[in-house]
């Protein structure tokens, strides 16, 4: 968080025969575009994004019109995070010694994450500057309506959990988005980004206070990874979009009958929290 006074120090690590650098994302348009293309590819079949967009089908490629609109959505998301003083952190793949000639790297983003600190959120002026009118033009008024529905459901779930511990949602760090590029999946890059976020949250917190870290998970695969990193599922499910979309987040085509629409089950996702990221870091260091 830029207002915290805690400076970010880039660091290197190696996995699977590759060398990586973890650093803050650049606000340069080329880097944001590179991040957004990879995010769009990673979330092509994400039910929540499908619901936001109002799509009738899951996009098969970022080269389709639906995929391109998804790319534009993630451009706005990461740009708004930076403009709202959140944290956009990337893992970049470093070239081999023999390939370090100038201009050898174009898109070397291997993973990325977007974070918001306590009492931070997307600022309206930041969203406008980030280009939010573009996805609004693509998806129509339903985008704001469905994002609002999603936010209300998650807020209510987190509030119940935090009230039980005499805490508020404003005490927490929020992991808004995290992904790994397809070619680097399975090499622990997501875990590296989450642990970096844990460390930063602890450095920014008052002495003796361990901040909670929250997120939403929309797939069984991601839930398993988060559970491994010390997160827990607050409640079994959040369910939104009932009667509007199927379990993939897709709305029925216009030629579908009223009866079929009435049977649409909506999407289910999980709100998750890590109450003690320090303990999670200690457990990881002992491995």
UniProtKB/TrEMBL annotation:
It comes from the Eukaryota. InterPro entries: Acyl_CoA_acyltransferase, Trichothecene_AcTrans. This is N-acetyltransferase domain-containing protein. The lineage of its organism: Eukaryota, Fungi, Dikarya, Basidiomycota, Agaricomycotina.
């Amino acid at each position: 968080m830029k207002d915290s006074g805690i400076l970010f120090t880039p660091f290197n690590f190696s996995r699977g025969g590759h060398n990586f650098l973890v650093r803050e994302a650049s606000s340069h348009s080329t880097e944001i575009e590179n991040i957004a293309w990879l995010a769009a590819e990673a979330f092509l079949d994400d039910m929540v994004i499908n619901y936001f967009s109002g799509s009738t089908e899951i996009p098969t490629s970022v080269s389709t019109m639906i995929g391109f609109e998804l790319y534009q959505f993630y451009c706005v998301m990461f740009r708004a995070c930076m403009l709202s003083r959140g944290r956009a952190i990337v893992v970049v793949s470093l070239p081999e010694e023999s390939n370090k000639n100038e201009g050898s790297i174009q898109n070397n983003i291997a993973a990325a994450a977007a974070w918001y600190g306590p009492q931070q959120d997307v600022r309206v002026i930041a969203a406008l500057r980030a280009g939010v009118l573009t996805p609004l033009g693509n998806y129509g008024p339903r985008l704001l309506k469905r994002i609002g529905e999603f936010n209300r459901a998650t807020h209510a779930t987190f509030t119940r959990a935090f009230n039980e511990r005499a805490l508020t949602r404003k005490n927490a760090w929020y992991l808004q988005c995290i992904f790994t590029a397809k070619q680097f999946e399975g090499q622990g890059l997501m875990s590296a980004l989450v642990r970096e976020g844990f460390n930063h949250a602890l450095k920014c917190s008052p002495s003796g206070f361990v901040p909670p870290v929250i997120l939403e998970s929309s797939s069984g695969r991601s839930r398993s990874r988060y559970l491994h990193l010390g997160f827990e599922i607050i409640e079994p499910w959040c369910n939104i979009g009932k009667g509007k979309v199927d379990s993939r987040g897709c709305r029925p085509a216009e030629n579908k009958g009223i009866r079929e629409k009435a049977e649409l089950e909506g999407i289910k996702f999980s709100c998750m929290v890590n109450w003690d990221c320090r303990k999670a870091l200690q457990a990881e260091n002992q491995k």
